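In this section we walk through a basic example: taking a raw amino acid sequence and producing a predicted 3D structure, encoded as discrete structure tokens. The instruction is simple. Fold the sequence below.
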Amino acid sequence: MRSPVIYIFFNRPEVTRRTFAALREQRPARLYLIADGPRPDNPSDAVRCAETRALIDDMLDWDCEITRDYSAINLGCGRRIVTGLTAAFALLGEAIVLEDDIMPHPGFFAFCDDQLDEHRDDPHIHAISGFQPLGRYAPSCGPVVPSTFIGIWGWASWQRAWAVYRFDIADTWKNDAFRQGVRDYLRNDLNFLTHSRNFDELTENKVNTWDFQ
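The resulting token sequence is shown next.
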């Protein structure tokens, strides 16, 4: 594989062992590791976070340039992943992103390599998603389906695209002109309803996440 890989994990050594083993088979030459710190109200986190980080070190048995972006405190699922990805894309320029609970298909990495190369300079393409929920669906346009949704269960992108990402969207989403712009872009009322529900939950602090944005 040619692309750098960003691997995100936390406190689940059992899950991490399986998915990192799949990544290990690919032997990426550049690896950026992101981990959140233990939650202060969860007594087992300190041990489990340390155990998971040690597991990663034990499995890193190939020649690889590694960046460890490990937080000493708990930032939460949303802010920790965003701060990590922002630093990672700024450093790497582009990368494949894999979280600890995503088991990649063997062909996933080559697919991302090729798609990152093909769309690197296309400002209309913001990410490559390896997630295919459509079963045996075979689109007439070929093996890649353009979409206004991004599946973050195994994906890849570039610094140029991540640079326009915004974590805090509450003020923007309250703007009527912006909401109409989203509706016009999606050109589908069901899609807009789905996004609206997600963005409303974010602005009301009902969810702590990074991917809706």
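Looking at the output, two observations stand out. The longest helix spans residues 77-92. The domain at 5-165 is CATH 3.90.550.10 (Spore Coat Polysaccharide Biosynthesis Protein SpsA; Chain A). In the next section we compare this with other chains.
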